[in-house]
Amino acid sequence: MTGYTRKPCEENMRKISYAQAINEAFHQVMANDDRVFQIGVGINTPWYVGNTMKGLLDSFGETRMIDTPVSENGITGISVGSALTGMRPILTFPRMDFMYYAMDQICNHAAILNYTFGGNVSIPLTIRAIINRGGEQAAQHSQALQALFMHVPGLKIVMPSNAFDAKGLLIEAVEDDNPVLYIEDRWLYDEEMEVPEEDYRVPIGQAKLVREGTDITIVSYSYMMVECQKAIVELTKQGINPELIDLRSIKPMDITTIIHSLKKTGRLLIVDGGWKTGGVAAEIAALVADEGFALLKTPVKRLTLPDLPAPSSKTLEKIYYPTHVEIIKGCQDIIHDKQNVH
Length: 342
Fold this sequence. Notes:
Blueprint: E1 13-17, H1 18-32, E2 36-40, H2 46-49, H3 56-60, E3 65-67, H4 72-84, E4 88-93, H5 103-110, H6 113-116, E5 126-131, H7 146-150, E6 156-158, H8 163-175, E7 180-185, E8 192-196, E9 208-211, E10 216-220, H9 224-237, E11 242-246, E12 249-251, H10 255-265, E13 268-275, H11 280-291, E14 301-305, H12 314-320, H13 324-335
Parallel strand pairs: 2-3, 2-4, 4-5, 5-7, 6-7, 10-11, 10-13, 13-14
Antiparallel strand pairs: 1-8, 6-12, 9-11
């Protein structure tokens, strides 16, 4: 494939949405490599996957845009098998919740075959999972399961928060020779950003320092980055100068960037769109305790979903999902905490 591993030319930038960036990446990787095909339930149904798949069926036909019956375990097995033969499938789960049905194929086969065959086979499989939140969709249609898969050896996991990273990480994922779980959040689909027209790559495993600061480090990813940036606008008005890190990749995780930031701030708020127990925020807190405990001026604070299934009521949804309001309060509590961890 052709493309850019360095920062693309700014002259080719234009502002497009997160969903459009994904769609453009799909068009480019499929045009550049005949081995790439897409498979999944409802992938050719616009209302099911939004504008992310627009025009792909017309451009590449049914042999490369395979809309399947509802059989998640079966189609995952087909995808793993085709990857073993040298194809580069993109498997889409329009609702991440339904990945539970494919756990055997993902965890017992896709993630570990490279290891069980001593590195002699590759599984170039991109598993695309879409998080659906809000809209009274309730517990079985609103789950963010990234921490569950983060525990599985052999899987890389990326969760872009903006259109630029959505395109670059998707292209990088498709070109990877082993499984990458690419997770997107529908709440990001309309968020716009300047994105290059040409194809380019964002390296897996590298966090991004979004904003430099001195008072507190905020670490987040995916949709919660939007809420973090809203919070920073208000925090700066209060005289608080936060540093903001976008993980982008939760496995492998860039702990080096976080530790470097803590050397400046000594304080850490982790904002995680998943559940609290055994979550991404818990892993970051553990890594910081292992590698950067001496840098902390105050205890690490986690802001997450409560350990409860998503509600179906609009009123309860407003309480269930954290917003910039809770992020602001979390930062204030840490900044004004007189307790010293030592």
